[in-house]
Amino acid sequence: MVIDLQKVLERFMEEHVALKKELNHVQEMTSHMVAILGSEESKQLLQEIRKHMLTFMQQLEAHEHWEEAEVLPVLAEYAQMGVEPTFLTSTWVMEEDHKQAERFVRSFLEYVDICKCADRIKLKKAISLLSVACSVLSEHLVSEEEMVFPIANQLLSSIHTQS
Question: Which residues form a coiled coil (predicted)?
Fold first, then answer.
């Protein structure tokens, strides 16, 4: 079980690093877009950012499904033994964070779809929606890490103590 848990934690962290890297890339592209706001290039960059966010959301969905199937059941079983009484509340908050982030990303994507011109005001609104989405997503990833790692470390400690 220790080896399985360690593998799960390694994958969890690898996926989080990749997701954070993609978010950072989107934020860098967004900063560049702000610098060239209103130009034809900014309109093209907005479409590129849109594609990256679609890919990011697919990766996040796959990660979330894997977490629900592999990570949370192990941690929930351990939490039910009384070691981590706030676990269920924490998972609910994480799910709500994820839903909120999805809503912001969807709003951004929908707005980009109707934002056909390179109008500065529309581009600023798109950037604003994207900034909020990225912020919520970043916080969501950090919250997951702050919930998963302490419980996993307690579980590993407990297993090592019993052996």
Answer: 2-29
Name the burial class of residue 143, with classes exposed (0-12), middle (13-18) and buried (19+) by CB atoms within 10 angstroms of its CB: middle
pTM, to two decimals: 0.84
Cβ-proximal residues to 133 (8 Å cutoff; 6+ apart), any chain:
53, 101, 104, 105, 107, 108
Nearest to 108 by CA among 160, 56, 41: 56
Residue 35 is part of which domain span? 2-162
d(CA 89, CA 87): 5
Tens of pLDDT, residues 145-156? 888 887 777 777
Cα 62 to Cα 134: distance, rounded to the nearest angstrom: 18
Q: Nearest 5°: CA angle at 74, between 147 and 58?
A: 70
pLDDT tens-digit profile of 114-125?
A: 876 657 787 888
CB–CB of 26/46 below 8 Å? no
